[in-house]
Amino acid sequence: MANSTVSSQSKLIVARPIELSFSLPRAQGTRIYLQLTVRATSVLLFLTTARDGVTSTASLGSFVFALPDRLNPGQSISTPLYEDISSIEFTTRLAKFLARKFNKAIYIGNSISFDSTGLGGSVEEELEGFKKVVDVATYHIQNQLDNFKN
C-alpha cells in the first residue's frame, strides 16, 4: 500500500502517520518520540519523551491549535485546547512557528520533559530541544508535502 493517497476531485489527501524517535539534546538515554500526520489543510503532531529501557507513562501534556494569520502573514494565532503548565509555552511556540512556516492549521500535543537533561531543563537545553524538534518536524512535513505534489 502506498504511503499516501491523493484524490484529485475532493483534494483529499490521506497519509499514514510518520513515527520516529531521536535523542533529546544533552540528555543521555532520553529520546523524543514524534508522531506526525500531514493532511491537505492541516498537520497533527504529537511529541513525548522517554528514557531508554524505562517503562512509565507520560503526562497528557498540552494540546494547542494554531493557524496562520491571513491578514498578517508574519504572524499566527493559537489557542490552547488543553494546558499543562510544564509544556504549554513550548507547545504554543512550536505550533505558531509551524503554522507560519507551512501556512496550514497545526495541532500539537506535547508532553516533552526536560527533567533528564544535564541542568534539569535550563533555557539553553529547552532551546536546543526546540531546534531539534523544529529541524526534524520541518524536514518530514516538507517531505510529505512534496510527495503530495508528485
Description:
With 150 residues, the chain is an alpha+beta fold. The protein has a single domain, classed as Ribosomal Protein S5, domain 2 (2-Layer Sandwich). The chain has helices spanning 88-102, 123-149; strands spanning 4-7, 12-15, 18-23, 30-38, 42-51, 62-68, 76-82, 105-111. The strands form 2 sheets. The chain has a 6-stranded mixed sheet with strand order 3-4-5-8-6-7, with helices on one face. Strands 1-2 form a two-stranded antiparallel ribbon. Strand 3 (18-23) and strand 4 (30-38) form a beta hairpin. The longest helix has 27 residues, at 123-149. It holds the Pfam family PAC4. InterPro entries: PAC4 (IPR032157). One of its GO terms (biological process) is proteasome assembly.
Descriptive tags:
alpha+beta; Ribosomal Protein S5, domain 2; six-stranded mixed β-sheet; two-stranded antiparallel ribbon; disordered N terminus; PAC4
